[in-house]
Amino acid sequence: MLGTTVIIPTALVPQMGGGNEEKAKVIQTLLFVAGLNTLLQSYFGTRLPAVIGGSYTFVAPTISIILSGRWEDPDPVSRFKKIMRATQGALIVASTLQIVLGFSGLWRNVVRFLSPLSAVPLVSLVGFGLYEFGFPGVAKCVEIGLPQLVLLVIFSQYLAHLIRRGKNIFDRFAVLFTVAIVWIYAHLLTVGGAYNGTPPKTQASCRTDRAGLIDGAPWIRVPYPFQWGPPSFDAGEAFAMMMAAFVALVESTGGFIAITRYASATPLPPSVLSRGVGWQGIGILLSGLFGTGNGSSVSIENAGLLALTRVGSRRVVQISAGFMIFFSILGKFGAVFASIPASIVGALYCIFFAYVGVGGLSFLQFCNLNSFRTKFILGFSIFLGLSVPQYFNEYTVIAGYGPVHTSGRWFNDMVNVPFSSEAFVAGILAYFLDNTMHKKDSQVRKDRGKPWWDKFKSFKTDTRSEEFYSLPFNLNKYFPSV
């Protein structure tokens, strides 16, 4: 969780006007809410071993709120709180989208038309689409990031097979072993003065004491709702955040499907996926109430971790959620872990996101790759899924604003945010083409992989659904899945 939990507040809080103390509190709050949401999702949502954490998708509308010009205040901490309360209001309103779509069953009706063919671009680009956070993150401090990447590959892919007795140990604890080794190495470089006199950018990426979080974090602090004050509401900002919530919804659908594959569960029945989306909406609501400055969605890095460790246990994720809550309350302990250099996280992303991407490609085994219809849908959706966001992101970097640039900042975000998401563009395009291009032919149905997927169309068609997805405490009797 350290990637999104630390990187997002580190980027946003200083822009809001907050200092190290505020940054530490936001990181604590984000980790605390992530632990709560993960427990709720694993008990009452999809019941998959899915971690629910911060999402990069919500960063753009948050920055838009920061830049709106409505929060000028000579006191930076007062400005921080005003912006945080505006973000809270937008998140609270935006959460209703996923809550309504999920619990009403509307998303269930959408997902029923998903096929293995249209799932390939969606799930693949949920992973591969995050390539910009991989090696570019490693390269920010290559003397730390590259050893982490090489060691992780050696521990997880080579030592696990060379040393038979330690096979499960190296498989399951490769991340912990390698992060600990490289973290100590990075700390020795820091205290040895390797980065003294280097540019501030290098120090921020490489030093283990750069964040000022340990000093700023209290020993014990329990995050609570409305800790920054009562939320404020603005219709335009709420609409922009709602669009980000919809993009996160599409990306999370791909994340849930990838987790299903790596947890060795049967494909998600549409009603269970819809239930999970509803609880994810509750997660965004909690993010708004507690004031994390960021919305919640499925943690893609943890979906990749399932593949790396080969541990798809719901109980393991629930225990992990307990640790997340524990470390968020004991602020100093959490701050120590937050001192891990970002380049180490970038190296982990190279493996985790790759696994998620290839999890999407694995659905090709159910499709007919000799069909030109299949080739067109796959090629066109994946290519535009990479190409369109590349244009939007390049334009934003050069011009300082997106291609859609009107006087209404909220309207700009509503268009620019979805088209900057690789998974959203590819998934929506593949879904549309797959469900509109001469699909009634029986051969086309086989080409799409529908006969395989149909076996899991409802909760009761496979006896294993009860084992994987039934609610605890006999709640299925009151909230039956269809």
Account of the protein in words:
This protein is mostly helical. The chain has one domain (1-470). It contains 23 helices and 2 strands. The chain has helices spanning 2-16, 20-44, 59-66, 76-103, 106-111, 116-128, 135-139, 142-162, 167-191, 200-206, 213-216, 235-262, 270-290, 300-309, 314-329, 331-337, 342-361, 372-399, 409-416, 422-436, 442-447, 450-454, 464-469; strands at 52-54, 296-298. It has a two-stranded antiparallel ribbon. Helix 4 packs antiparallel against helix 13 (270-290), helix 8 crosses helix 17 (342-361) and helix 18 (372-399) packs antiparallel against helix 20. The chain starts with a helix and ends in a 13-residue tail after the last helix.
What fraction strand? under 5%
Q: What is the count of DSSP helices, taking H or I runs of 4+ residues?
A: 23
User: Quick one: biggest sheet?
Assistant: 2 strands, antiparallel
Radius of gyration: 22 Å
Q: N- to C-terminal separation?
A: 33 Å
Could you give the topology of this structure?
Layout: H1 2-16, H2 20-44, E1 52-54, H3 59-66, H4 76-103, H5 106-111, H6 116-128, H7 135-139, H8 142-162, H9 167-191, H10 200-206, H11 213-216, H12 235-262, H13 270-290, E2 296-298, H14 300-309, H15 314-329, H16 331-337, H17 342-361, H18 372-399, H19 409-416, H20 422-436, H21 442-447, H22 450-454, H23 464-469
Antiparallel strand pairs: 1-2
Helix pairs in contact: 1-2, 1-3, 2-13, 2-15, 3-12, 4-12, 4-13, 6-12, 6-17, 6-18, 6-20, 8-9, 8-17, 12-13, 12-14, 12-17, 12-19, 12-20, 14-17, 18-20
